[in-house]
């Protein structure tokens, strides 16, 4: 149980690193959006996270420092996501059905984490098509993983119901974002860019927050189980 608690702490650290590193990346970013390359700083509501990972800005300015920070940040988040689902699959005492659901969730979760790492290493200005595919599949697979976690955690008597409901709320939010991503307004228009960039920020931070909540909850539960045992 002590090892599991340490593993969940690692997940928390990796997810927190995403937030910690993207802040200076935003501050350092030279500016420029897909619609207006003349801006001089990062705009929270009209720049995508992917802009931080560009080798050069839309105006052609070097973006090396922000790109490196973003690459490390998103790689950490992807690894943290994959690691979370791996350890979560063996954490709860469940029936054969419940264990099977979490194993399937882990497969989808690891694949999603790999896709997020793929996003980190395919700069949008160099590998636009591949970058977009990694983005879409990262979220598709993440949703699949969460959908399998929901019944598994609801079937686990020891797992707090409120944490299972966090999965439910996040699944609804993630499904909504996927609809926005695939059928919403195009970022080529000012209004579409505002909606898409803002939606991306909401789902990115919601993703990190959800994994943090689950990892911290599992860590505390592991401590209680160890104390009772």
Note the main attributes of this structure:
7 helices, elongated, mainly alpha, single chain, 75% helix, 229 residues
Structure, briefly:
This protein has 229 residues and is an all-alpha fold.
Describe the structure.
The relative contact order is 0.15. The protein has one domain (2-228). It has helices at residues 2-28, 49-52, 64-89, 96-121, 128-154, 161-183, 190-228. It is elongated. The protein is mainly alpha-helical and 229 residues long. Helix content is 75%, strand content 0%. The mean pLDDT is 94. The protein is built from 7 helices and no strands. The chain starts with a helix and ends with a helix.
- Rg measurement, Å: 18 Å
Mean pLDDT equals: 94
Shape: elongated
Please tally the β strands and state the result: 0
* N-to-C CA distance: 10 Å
Helices and strands: which structural class? Answer: mainly alpha
Report low-confidence residues grouped into runs of 5 or more: none
Report the total helices: 7
User: What is the H-and-E element order?
Assistant: HHHHHHH
Q: Beta-strand level of the residues, as a percent range?
A: under 5%
Number of domains as seen in the coordinates = 1
- Give the helix proportion (percent range): over 70%
- What kind of sheet is the major sheet? none
Please specify the SSE layout and strand pairing:
Blueprint: H1 2-28, H2 49-52, H3 64-89, H4 96-121, H5 128-154, H6 161-183, H7 190-228
């Amino acid at each position: 149980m002590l090892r599991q608690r340490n593993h969940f702490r690692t997940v928390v650290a990796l997810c927190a690193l995403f937030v910690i590193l993207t802040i200076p990346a935003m501050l350092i970013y030279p500016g420029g959006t897909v619609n207006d390359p003349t801006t001089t700083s990062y705009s929270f509501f009209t720049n995508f996270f992917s802009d931080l990972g560009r080798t050069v800005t839309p105006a052609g300015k070097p973006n090396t420092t922000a790109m490196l920070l973003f690459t490390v940040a998103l790689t950490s988040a992807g690894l943290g996501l994959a690691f979370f689902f791996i350890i979560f699959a063996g954490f709860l005492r469940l029936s054969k059905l419940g264990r099977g659901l979490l194993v399937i969730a882990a497969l989808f979760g690891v694949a999603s984490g790999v896709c997020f790492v793929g996003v980190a290493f395919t700069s949008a200005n160099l590998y636009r098509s591949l970058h977009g595919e990694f983005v879409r599949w990262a979220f598709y697979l993440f949703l699949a993983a969460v959908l399998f976690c929901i019944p598994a955690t609801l079937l686990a008597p020891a797992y707090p119901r409120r944490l299972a409901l966090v999965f439910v709320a996040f699944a609804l939010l993630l499904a909504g974002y996927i609809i926005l991503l695939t059928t919403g307004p195009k970022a080529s228009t000012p209004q579409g860019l505002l909606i898409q960039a803002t939606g991306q920020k909401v789902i990115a931070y919601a993703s990190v927050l959800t994994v943090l909540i689950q990892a911290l909850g599992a860590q505390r539960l592991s401590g209680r189980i160890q104390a009772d045992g």
